[in-house]
Amino acid sequence: MIRALTRLLPAVATLVLLGACATGAAPAPDAAADGGGATLSVVTLNIYHDRDGWERRRPLVIEGLRALRPDVIGLQEVLQHGTLRNQAADIADALGYDFHFVSTAPEGEVERYGNAILTRHPILERSERRLRPLEDSRTVAHVRIAFDGRPIDIYDTHLHHTAEGGAMRAEQLADVLAHIDGNDDGTPMVLMGDFNAGAGSPELQRLAGRYVDAFGSTHPGDDVTTLNPHYFPDRHERIDHVFVPGDRFEVLESRRVLDRPDADGIWPSDHFGILARLRLSPAR
Hints:
Mean pLDDT is 90; it is low at 1-28 and 31-35. By secondary structure, this protein is an alpha+beta fold. It has a single domain (33-280), classed as Deoxyribonuclease I, Chain A, CATH 3.60.10.10. The protein has helices at 11-22, 54-68, 87-95, 166-183, 214-218, and strands spanning 3-7, 30-31, 38-46, 72-80, 98-103, 112-119, 123-131, 138-147, 150-158, 189-194, 212-213, 240-244, 249-257, 273-280.
């Protein structure tokens, strides 16, 4: 198990940067219509690495995200190899975002595969953790960003994929929560990604009571899928999620995004994205 935590700014510089964000150094967050707290928008999307013509899908992903302009983007199935630039770096540069990419493959290797977090706000800290069993090559990525004069922790993960792998997903989720708890100092946090299981599945029960399922809380009883039927004609499941602590955020909106093909029938990915718009509770 590997846990690396890199503090990019000393304490004084962090406080200065947080103050600068409140006075316009970073893009101003949206104000809630009723005068409440600042509104954070996040999107999670599995980009299907380089399968099925990435060169045709790439502009659909980039332009779809550009139109949404979320504060934070969580990407899964991010790939780089000898003839493919790191997809997170490529998308981040196109959007003007900073990014943090994690992989079980060591830095410096030509081929790396993993998860990434993109943000248009300053990154104060970043960390990562490999999830057990290590041979499954799963990780959780983490950044702490400066938003509305306050820090917010963002976590992005991708759990095991097989139908019979519920026990493995439960073990991996336990590692994700251990990483969250290890960084917890009271900072508000968001957990998102491709969990390869429904929000109410047995392997995700450790999230129940601790976090709110953003989409489920705004669409109770809705039977929707985040698996693109073009690629998964026999599976109808919502396995991509955004989870938040209910005492730190109010879910204002959540919806499916990047879920339409272009005029030529090209889809952005084999998954649909999930967007959540969250109102940050007043500072404690």
